[in-house]
Amino acid sequence: MTAVVETEGLTKFYGTRRGLEDLTLEIRPGEVFGYLGPNGAGKTTTIRLLLDVIRPTSGRATVLGADTRDPRVRARIGYLPGELALEGRERARDYLQFLADVRGGVSRGKIDALAERLDADLSARMGELSKGNKQKVGLIQAFMHEPELLILDEPTSGLDPLVQQEFLAMVREVRTSGRTILMSSHVLAEVEHVADRVGIVRAGRLVAVEDIAALRERAVRHVELHFDAPVPAESFQGLPGVRDVVVQGASLRCTIDGRPDALIKAAARYTVVHMVSAEPDLEEIFLTYYSEEEARHAHAGA
Amino acid sequence: MPTLVRKSLREYRRALVGWTIGLCAFLAMYISFYGGMRDNTETLSAQAIAKYPGAFRDLLGGLSDLASGRGYLQAVVYQLLGPLLFTMCAAILGNRAVAVPEESKTLELTLTLPIGRRRLLLERWAALALGLLGVALVTLLFAAGAASAAHMDVPFGDILAAHTGLFLLVLFFGTLTLCVGAALGRKQVALAVVGVWGVAGYIVETMGRNLDAIAWLRWISPVHYYLDGRPLYQGWPYGDYLVLLGATAVLLLTALPAFERRDVGV
Ligand SMILES: Nc1ncnc2c1ncn2[C@@H]1O[C@H](COP(=O)(O)OP(=O)(O)OP(=O)(O)O)[C@@H](O)[C@H]1O
Ligand SMILES: [Mg+2]
């Protein structure tokens, strides 16, 4: 099957400021793609290019097989802007109905069902909604017409934890029904439980695209071992994939990259009474992409 | 009616109602003064008017026969204050088509609807034109009613001709605001362009007509095509009105590709 989103050398300069440079990316049907990066990385720029709000300096992009310039394709996309603004005296329900009408209608009761799930008050005037409630209205309009592709720019910003959980459930349902989601975020933790793949963008460039499953494998792990008697530190020096070793009497703390095999074999010479291994911290491996030096180091090591 | 036209009219509704009431209040007040002033020949007599400096009289359209119903209606309503107020209304509404929602970021979601940019701009413009037409119709009926109540003796046909010119003039300025906003996305710039072109155009048309050095500038003043035909006296100046309509169309046709091409919200 063809890609849902396909970009080739997509580049956007705002005057001389770089927004995005040379993005080549493919998002496959049915996947949840997390688009990650720090402030000013180029996430919103990418998304606005895909929705034809801004125009590329060079390169091209297609969405659902159509050129981004084709307005008809946007009826099949659900979009949540990163800087969502809702204003005025209009009631949220009337505004949603207007959006639904222009997109060719939504199935009956869909708006109310979503409002109930997200606990949103649609009778309020939009200018009087709190930030989180605006975000809910934004989510409802993005999901309500059951689009084939959802493009969500920082969807969880402003939402309380309960609503965030509900949102993630909605994302999973969309994936189950075979539809595709592109969502941006600053933190991996926000998307790691729903995303199939993540792309990491930094200073306008895509620095990595990773499978979440593969990322988990490569993740660093903090391990703590407790022995029945003090152990010599030397026995744990220079083990492959083991670093930051700290031995204090009968306990040892260290960090392992990848397989724990060498550490287990070294520890097996002593009596282990207790072992703690924290959940793999994807955030940490993710953060290494943020620092160029470490990224280069990772390349050299690979 | 297309959904976006209906939605835009709904957004304009409060402003339209407000401006209609305001303009009618203005008409009622100034036209009702006529009765009192007509009886008091001192203030409106040609000799009294002649005491004002020439440039001042030019600025107000000559003030030649303020004592007659036509002269009073022209000087007080159709010369300066009426177009000024109605143009303000048109510029404010015209800005709300693109520039204001763009600056407040609410345009982004509208833009990502399955509507092409050209259609979006045309439907916004259609809502503006319909809204202004509504205000023009109500104020026309109100002006005609007030004029007849004040015994001005101006036939409805002449008021209709003058009021049509007023509508075309404000439609031009409203379209100008909309188009500058659509092309540049800046509401202050749009207001500045309308303000400068409108005020300079008015001065050139009224005081400049006797100054050879700037008289030619009248041709690029929209106000010229509104005032020069003296519709209240001479009936329909079809040619002038067609120029105003044509200029409005040209503006719109220029703004469409400009809006189509540019980045929104940057
Ligand atoms: N309208 C604009 N004019 C000039 N530069 C811009 C504009 N919008 C974005 N940029 C620049 O483009 C770069 C990418 O911005 P973008 O908004 O895409 O980042 P982002 O990843 O969405 O950031 P955030 O997480 O803060 O939302 C930044 O350096 C920013 O300064
Ligand atoms: Mg952003």
What does the model show?
The complex is a heterodimer of chains A (302) and B (266). Chain A has 302 residues and is of the alpha/beta class. Helices cover 30% and strands 29% of the residues of chain A. Chain A is built from 10 helices and 14 strands. In chain A, the strands form 3 sheets. Chain A has a 6-stranded mixed beta sheet with strand order 6-7-8-3-9-10, sandwiched between helices. A 4-stranded antiparallel beta sheet of chain A has the order 2-1-4-5, with helices on one face. In chain A, strand 7, helix 5 and strand 8 form a beta-alpha-beta unit. By secondary structure, chain B is mainly α. Chain B has one domain (3-261). Chain B is 78% helix and 0% strand. Chain B is built from 15 helices and no strands. Chain B has helices at 3-39, 41-44, 46-50, 54-59, 69-79, 81-95, 99-103, 107-111, 117-149, 156-184, 187-206, 212-215, 222-227, 231-234, 238-261. Chain B is globular, with a radius of gyration of 20 Å. Chain B starts with a helix and ends in a 5-residue tail after the last helix. The relative contact order of chain B is 0.13. The model of chain B has no long low-confidence stretch (mean pLDDT 92). Chains A and B meet through helix 2 of A and helix 1 and helix 8 of B. The complex binds adenosine-5'-triphosphate and magnesium ion. Adenosine-5'-triphosphate binds at residues 14, 17, 19, 37, 39-45, 82, 186 of chain A.
